[in-house]
Amino acid sequence: MIIYPAIDLRGGKVVRLVHGDPKQQTIFSDDPIATAQQWIDQGAEWIHVVNLDGAFDEQNNNLKVLADLAKLNAKIQFGGGMRALDDVAQALDLGASRVVMGTLAVQQPETVELAVKRFGAEAI
Predict the structure, then answer these.
(1) The pTM is what?
(2) Where are the beta strands (DSSP E) in 30-101?
(3) Which residues pair with 10 in a beta bridge?
(4) DSSP 3-state of 48
(5) d(CA 100, CA 48)
(6) Class of domain 6-123
(7) Which of 5, 9, 71, 76 could be 39's S-S partner, Cβ–Cβ 3.0 to 4.6 Å?
(8) Domain segments of the chain as ranges
(9) Average pLDDT of the chain to the nearest whole number
(10) Other Cβ atoms within 10 Å of 52 Cβ, number
(11) Which tens digit of pLDDT belongs to each residue from 22-37?
(12) CA-to-CA distance for 51 and 106, rounded, in angstroms?
């Protein structure tokens, strides 16, 4: 069994939202790298990271956080803000091992097919 500890990013911080409401958030940490490292120290092989700013179509620096997380000793599954094939490519180029295509997969299933052909099924 693989357990995927999750880190939700908003404004570069580790947060949790109440019922997905961005106005109701709790900040758990100002340091997502340290949070991920704690999970890794406990044996995590994967970290599931959600770019909430990207999901809400807000400006953010979470791609820099992704690049920093990718330097750690774990694979990163990254989602949030994947609006086009270029977003998928950028996340993978920054070090994500896999991307999550949520809304894009529903609204443009042909893009998922293109992504699988271009990057491989294991990356999508």
Answers:
(1) 0.92
(2) 46-51, 75-79, 98-100
(3) 13
(4) strand
(5) 9
(6) alpha beta
(7) 5
(8) 6-123
(9) 95
(10) 23
(11) 889 999 999 999 999 9
(12) 18
